[in-house]
Amino acid sequence: PTKLRLSEAVSGSKLGANVQVQGWVRSVRPQKKNLFLHVNDGSTLQPLQIVASSGLLTFGCAVEVTGTLKQSPHQKQLVELEADQILVVGECNPVDFPFKIKERHNLEYIRQFPHLRCRTNAFSSLLRIRSEATTAIHSYFRENGFVQIHTPIITSNDCEGAGELFQVEPQSPENDEDANFFSVPAFLTVSGQLHLEVMSGGFSRVYTFGPTFRAENSQSRRHLAEFYMVEAEVSFTQSIEDLTKVMEDMFRSATEDVLAHCAEDVALFHKHVTPGHRDTVDHMLKKRFPVITYTEAIDILNRSSQKFAFPTQWGCDLQTEHEKYLVKHCGNIPVFVTDYPYELKPFYARDNEDHPEHTAAAVDLLVPGVGELCGGSLREERLDLLRTRLEEAGLQDTYSWYLDLRRFGSVPHGGFGLGFERYLQCILGVDNIKDVIPFPRFSHSCLL
Ligand code: 4AD
Ligand code: MG
């Protein structure tokens, strides 16, 4: 027999062939003469129907089936496998198995079983979509002339300056020498931005896509301690539009790719897990994303009749409730907010000295259901302004190499970061960020 992945077996291209498939039993239907099984190996949403003479098989067990692929008499599927032999590779006690046959378990329930939830349709669809979205994002950057940079996980800088660092030290050092492994305090990265800025000075267009870490003691539905960030940095920028264009194009291109390449998985998800969300996604892609300034955003919020838990005034940071309101106000499509108060932004943000209010050339992309999806800015490329700001923060020595970048061929540049889990939440309509990552890490939880 020829060994086949399930995706190939269900496609109908191997009718009549003697084949062997392996997978996990997703359903068992004993009938008078025959036993009907659905088996899946995760390569496709479609299970393969197996027709066997009765045998002892339970929901959840792992099997290896040898037989002949035949055209199925049933409308639901193209092919079925007439089994000659079924080998139980791994048994499964259906009484103890947390997922019950024929039941649709919700995301919250299956989250309790991070080691088993890939056996559910909802979560395996989600992870195939996540995998496809990863590829789609890499494709976008490759097709648009960006060089991928592997920025470090361990770093000595705190790019965002928000004090949310995890420190890295050797476990139980035997002497002081070992304890001070890097000779400087070292941390898990909160952002690859500064390393990308280094590289944008040689490659013009660079990006990175990897894990980032924040010791955020937040139990929110959109924060994790470990999340994946897509970051891009572009040289020779003229205005913030050079960034919003990349953000919007990437969002559209990745989403269209996912909808096209994972159509079945997306359809299942939008039908059973987050009903109606497909309309929201189609609606989001219809129009260009509007751009408003922070000052306009504050005006909109001040004029709204909605009562916010956090009152708004010029200078305040936008909270999730404000972001969600602004998205609704703009027609439930993604919206860019630009030119935030200078004081709210980290040291690297470019000073808009020509504006009446003191703002920085920063931009966030806010999206339906989530709020902030991307944060970015033009970077301060002028040596004197940057040096002054670093001195005010007492950071001139820490960032002497960063100042060097402004000494040796400095160019206007800028970039942004997109939270990949929030992106998945947005296109899938998933309420809780813990449900879109295989192994969520957050305060008081580091299972497995
Ligand atoms: O807005 P942030 O903090 O921006 C930066 O880190 C910049 N240095 C990026 C850059 O310009 N290269 O983070 C970027 C995005 C946020 O908009 C959000 O979507 C996501 O990362 N994010 C988180 N996602 C999940 N859990 C968290 N704790 C997150 N913190 C930020
Ligand atoms: Mg931000």
From TrEMBL:
**This protein's UniProt keywords:** Aminoacyl-tRNA synthetase, ATP-binding, Ligase, Nucleotide-binding, Protein biosynthesis
Write one Pfam family the protein is assigned to: tRNA_anti-codon
Q: Which GO terms describe its molecular function?
A: asparagine-tRNA ligase activity; ATP binding; nucleic acid binding
Instruction: Set out the biological process GO terms recorded for this chain's protein.
Output: asparaginyl-tRNA aminoacylation
A Gene Ontology CC term for this entry?
A: mitochondrion
UniProt key word Transmembrane: no
Give the enzyme class: ligase
The residue ranges of the Aminoacyl-transfer RNA synthetases class-II family profile domain are 127-438
* Cited InterPro entries: Aa-tRNA-synt_II, aa-tRNA-synth_II, aa-tRNA-synth_II/BPL/LPL, Asn-tRNA-ligase, Asp/Asn-tRNA-synth_IIb, NA-bd_OB-fold, NA-bd_OB_tRNA
Q: What is its EC number?
A: 6.1.1.22
Q: Which PANTHER family match?
A: ASPARAGINE--TRNA LIGASE, MITOCHONDRIAL-RELATED, ASPARTYL/LYSYL-TRNA SYNTHETASE
Q: Which family does it belong to?
A: Belongs to the class-II aminoacyl-tRNA synthetase family.
Protein name, please?
A: asparagine--tRNA ligase
